[in-house]
Amino acid sequence: MGVATHLGIDLADYDRRIRTFIPDYEEMLEVAAAAVPATARTIVDLGIGTGALAWRCAKMAPQANIVGVDADSEILQMARKRLGGSASLLCGSFLRTSIPRCDSAVASFALHHIRTQSAKAKLYRRIHAALYRRGRFIIVDCHPASEANLARGQRVAWAAHLRKSYVRREVEKLLTAWSQEDSYTTLDREMRLLQLCGFQIEVLWRRASFAVLMGKRQ
Predict the structure, then answer these.
(1) Which domains does the chain have, with CATH numbers?
(2) Among 36, 72, 84, 135, fewest CB within 10 Å belongs to which?
(3) HSE-CB for 63 with a 13 A CA cutoff
(4) d(Cα 99, Cα 173) in Å, to the nearest integer?
(5) pLDDT digits (tens, 9 = 90+) for 90-144
(6) DSSP helix/strand/coil, 158
């Protein structure tokens, strides 16, 4: 399934609509890109989409080679337009595609498509092995609280953002569909998993159910 089909939108309208779906989208991408070292030589973007995060990373590390992986061939065409011919774009699942040696690996709103924790752990170990010493793995995604009352409040906050663009019936439909189709790992569980896979963890940004995490390889 392509990303446009998954979200129920026109692919050409993706960059505008994603901002109506996700609060603080621009701020999170800026925080993630700022964590990429300016001296990075190779940056791998897992689930690169239209290249919004990769483009910001390229500005932070202008000498870096960008390697983007995405299973959606159509959205890769949009990334190519944004990034130009200097990026290496690979069509395939990041769960199976070879990850080259790199200084940084990034992923924005892609890892919640992984259905099981065992599959995610296998990917995280591959990323850890691909990173050079002191390399960074930066994640932007939805990581709700494990405590039920906090998680409910976070869902209410997400719904409030959606209601800026959609009527109540549409909001409930969107949130229900995403909860069934995606796997949102709680923040504490995600951090434990990263640590088990060898990373030292830092929370770079956190607001409601969304977070930017950085795992460092020592």
Answers:
(1) 3-216 (3.40.50.150)
(2) 84
(3) 6
(4) 36
(5) 999 999 999 999 999 999 999 999 999 999 999 999 999 999 999 999 999 999 9
(6) helix
